[in-house]
Design a protein that fits this description.
about 650 residues; mainly beta; Jelly Rolls; 2 helices; 57 strands; about 45% strand
């Protein structure tokens, strides 16, 4: 019996094989068994991914970390941290300055990858547990870096010695929040209200009445506290770093340099308790040790700094801080919420929301939800700040095979324009993407594997001119390459990885060391033809027909999609176990170049769709079916052209 099936919705992406038989669920109908380098769209369609443009090597060709920064005037830069050096890339893909290179204390690529950040417009704070807190500043024309000054109670200034530096940071409620140091793994701190000291100091004015405890900033950026009320006299404000500085009828005490992080506490209760923590050389989260810790409770509810050592019957070592409408504090075994109306940090104010445990992966606020990585890096979870906040859904439930033995999440970021996509970098260098759109009922995972065995080492998403843009450090051979992806909907983009545009090719093309001993793809822009060539010692011998032409050279990659098993109709409705044969497939495509269809990912059974060039519409496509077997459809794009599938309608004989 001949029948037609309409596969029109791929918004569940790649699903675990454990769900392959669940045709009673939307996951079984809209999911695929493989989705590699095809990107699901919220409309139901799938599109082959774009390629990535090669921008250059990281500084000293070293492992590092990328992180975006949109400064106060709306300009976006991408920071490149490598051992001891920080550089900046512009959104156009060029190095900022000559280039500008700032010296940092981070000595290894591993330290760079462990950095955490909190931004306050033109200031970025950077933390690492073995180095002092760093303060980056955008001056309006350039960037500067310095160790952040910390002020606080005499004898109790935190983050002032080796082993005492925080590992995590977040900006929340006009405060800087810190979590976990090497000596206080289960402790969180909050600065005084105002984020840092400029927020609470006012510029000095002559002939002005000042009250007791007023804070002013003089013309050189120093802050002073009024200890005797009166009227100011001198231009520029008080000077010096002492106490009892007289100006007019006012008396001032020097406080600190502008931009210091104020960790001054008021009255606190102090007592000891016990908690679980990780011992030295700790490896198993299920075998923590018991230790005695000092716990503080703030007893004054003003704008004082706050500190609390978490304690309980579980491992409370802090793993992440994520800021949104609330502050999510993730520990080894549980997640806690700091409410938005908090004025004093006490144990009863800290609300436990779940006991999944968090991984040391930087989370983020996406739409109305906080996204964080579960302990061991094998689950991506959502804390919704609106609606039902009792549920903390597992966003990777239906694609659990993508995380675990194959690799764990080590970095994550997201786009919102043109689509909501979460990118999760896996420890093995594979990049995962999750299309997440609640309005379209879309929760679709796919895999992005770099061409010619490249492995992703760091990612960030930065605002582009009209869309959000994915940046990556990619290890190709022995070279750490900075690359930027083309726009997801740019159908004119050439889908090659690490590509470079050679305006006029000579007999040889040099500078291709990242592709040494590999065969690259060549798109001839001048005449529209394609070729391949081997690279030896970084040099490509240009095919004779391409000499003198404009060429794009890069790493080819293959996009593969495999549908779930096709159902057939019997007297009871859809049946997965009936024997059947696909005789042809009708493909509905949009601005799509030809691709291949078949019952297996084998060259002998894959048929190229019959149109030429870019095509929009429906087309009847040949299909080498096989009778008396389970059937699915593979769609493969292995040429440097882009394709977009709106629907596949196989004709099935069952």
């Amino acid at each position: 019996m001949l029948g037609k099936l309409a596969l029109v919705d791929f918004t569940k992406g790649e699903i675990t094989p454990k769900l392959a038989g669940r045709w009673d669920l939307p996951l079984g109908v809209k999911g695929c068994l493989e989705m590699e380098s095809w990107i699901p769209l919220p409309y139901g369609a799938i599109i082959t991914r774009t390629g990535s443009k090669y921008l250059g090597l990281t500084k000293n060709n070293a492992l590092g970390r990328l992180r975006k920064w949109t400064v106060g005037d709306g300009t976006t830069y991408v920071m490149e941290f490598t051992p001891l050096v920080l550089r900046f890339w512009t959104s156009a893909g060029a190095l900022f300055g000559a280039p500008l290179e700032l010296t940092t204390p981070y000595t290894t690529g591993a330290q760079c990858r462990a950095l955490r950040f909190a931004q306050d417009v033109d200031v970025m704070f950077v933390v690492h547990p073995t180095h002092p807190i760093q303060k980056l500043t955008w001056t309006g024309s350039t960037f500067t870096i310095a160790a952040a000054a910390i002020v606080g109670n005499v004898g109790e200034v935190p983050f002032s010695a080796a082993g005492d530096y925080p590992a995590f940071i977040a900006g929340y409620g006009q405060r800087l929040w810190f979590g976990r140091s090497n000596t206080d793994k289960g402790t969180i701190w909050a600065s005084r209200a105002g984020i840092y000291t400029e927020a609470r100091g006012v510029a000095w004015q002559v002939s002005t009445a000042y009250e007791l405890d007023d804070i002013v900033i003089n013309d050189t950026g120093k802050l002073y506290t009024c200890v005797t009320a009166g009227t100011s006299a001198a231009a520029g404000g008080p000077t010096g770093t002492g106490s009892a500085i007289t100006d007019g009828t006012c008396v001032w005490d020097y406080w600190c340099a502008s931009g210091s992080i104020d960790m001054t506490y008021y009255q606190r209760q102090k007592f000891t308790t016990e908690r679980l923590t990780e011992p030295a050389g700790w490896a198993d989260p299920d075998i923590p040790e018991l230790e005695t810790v000092t716990v503080y409770r703030n007893t004054v509810t003003a704008d004082a700094a706050m500190v609390m050592a978490l304690a309980g019957d579980q491992n409370m070592d802090v793993q992440t801080l994520v800021s949104g409408d609330v502050l999510l504090v993730g520990t080894r075994t549980a997640e806690y919420i700091v409410p938005s109306d908090l004025t004093a940090l006490t144990p009863e104010k800290l609300v436990q929301k779940s006991r999944y445990g968090s991984a040391a992966v930087e989370g983020f606020l996406m739409g109305g939800s906080v996204i964080f990585t579960q302990r061991l890096g094998t689950r991506l979870r959502e804390y919704p700040q609106e609606g039902d906040v009792t549920a903390i859904p597992n966003l990777s439930f239906h694609a659990e095979h993508l995380l675990g033995a194959s690799g764990t999440i080590v970095e994550a970021d997201f786009t919102t324009v043109p689509y909501s996509l979460i990118y999760a970098l896996r420890s093995d260098g594979v990049l995962l993407a999750l299309g997440y759109d609640k309005g379209a009922d879309m929760l679709a995972w796919c895999r992005i594997v770099s061409g010619l065995s490249g492995t992703y080492k760091s990612i960030t998403v930065a605002a582009g001119t009209i869309v959000d843009v994915l940046w990556a450090i990619v290890l190709r051979g022995t070279q750490y390459c900075v690359e930027i992806f083309d726009g997801i909907e740019d159908m004119t983009a050439i889908p090659l990885d690490g590509w470079v545009n050679v305006a006029t090719a000579g007999a040889t093309v040099t500078g291709l060391d990242r592709f040494t001993d590999q065969t690259v793809a060549i798109r001839n822009i001048t005449d529209g033809t394609d070729a391949t060539a081997a690279v030896a010692a970084g040099v490509l011998t240009t095919p004779a027909a391409c000499v003198g032409d404009n060429l794009v050279i890069g790493a080819p990659f293959t996009c593969t999609m495999q549908t779930n098993r096709l159902p057939s109709e019997d007297g009871a409705g859809p049946a997965m176990l009936n024997l059947r044969q696909v005789t042809k497939v009708y493909a509905l495509v949009l601005a799509s170049y030809p691709f291949k269809l078949g019952r297996a990912e084998t060259a002998s059974v894959l048929e190229t769709t019959p149109w030429t060039g870019e095509y929009t519409g429906a087309y009847e496509c040949p299909f080498q079916g096989e009778s008396n077997r389970d059937t699915w459809i593979f769609a493969v794009q292995d040429t440097p052209y882009r394709s977009q599938i709106l629907a596949l309608v196989p004709e099935v004989d069952s």
